[in-house]
Amino acid sequence: MSTSVAVTGATGRLGTLVCQVIEEHPEFALAARLTSQSDPASGSGADILVDVSHPDASPAIVERAVRAGQKVVVGTSGWSAERIAGLEELVAETPGAGVIVVPNFSLGSVLGTALARIAAPFFDSIEIVETHHPRKVDSPSGTAVRTAEIMAEARGGKPADAPFAEQEARGQLVAGIPVHSLRLAGVSAKQEVHLGGPGETLTLTHNTSSNEAYRAGIVAALTAVRDASGVTVGLDSVLGLDGLGSGAGSGSGAGE
To answer: How far is CA 22 from the centre of its chain?
Structure first.
């Protein structure tokens, strides 16, 4: 028996792909394609809700789905640590609730963030540059925010060097790490994590050339959320990568 899935933001770039993946997969059935014009109650009977809507609308959509007893996959940007903390409170008071928040469905991006976690304790100079297509409405991207937060956590509270951070041109500080956002025609998605130490630099780059990169991650999230409990953030947890690099050293650059 297939698992029914409703999708909010179904007519967007990612929503269209999510619907296609669901229709092609034998274990899932597309129950509803929802847009901003849809009745809020539409799709509430589906087993799973996938939200890939708009950052402003997402919290209310997700709360409604959780209270309706649906398992939820959140692929919408804008889910900061503060917003996730509120979601965790909601889920904790809702028996059987399970939500997976996915900043990026690309497996390559997830691996890139895992590698950034490993490298973070060894370099004090860290900056992130994320580039997306001009139609992306939020900045910095959810992936960049997640990467910065994970790197800060891996450093055990030791702040990265962010000189002249008060200057607007230095980017937005996320967990103490400057993040720079570019919106350019001809680009789908790209993230660069730059790390610097005495006499050397390390750059971790992930480039998405088309939405096809998200297919495997969408399937992984849908499969995992059926049995999910509580709030899970990132495909790294789903794929078993969340502990990668947890044994890395701490402190400043290895050359010091």
So the answer is: 20
Question: What is the rounded distance in angstroms from the CA atom of residue 99 to the CA atom of residue 73?
Answer: 6
68: exposed, middle or buried (C-beta count within 10 Å: 0-12, 13-18, 19+)?
middle
User: What domains can be seen in the chain, in order of their start residue?
Assistant: 3-104+212-238 (3.40.50.720), 107-210 (3.30.360.10)
132 is catalytic: yes
Per-residue model confidence as pLDDT tens digits over 33-81: 999 889 878 899 999 999 999 999 999 999 999 999 999 999 998 888 8
Radius of gyration of the chain (CA): 19
Whether this model's pTM surpasses 0.70 = yes
According to DSSP, the residues that pair with 98 across neighbouring strands are: 230
User: Is 136 assigned a catalytic role?
Assistant: yes
Contact 236, 222 (CB under 8 A): no
- Catalytic residue from among 71, 132, 180, 206: 132
Which among 136, 158, 190, 194 is annotated as catalytic? 136
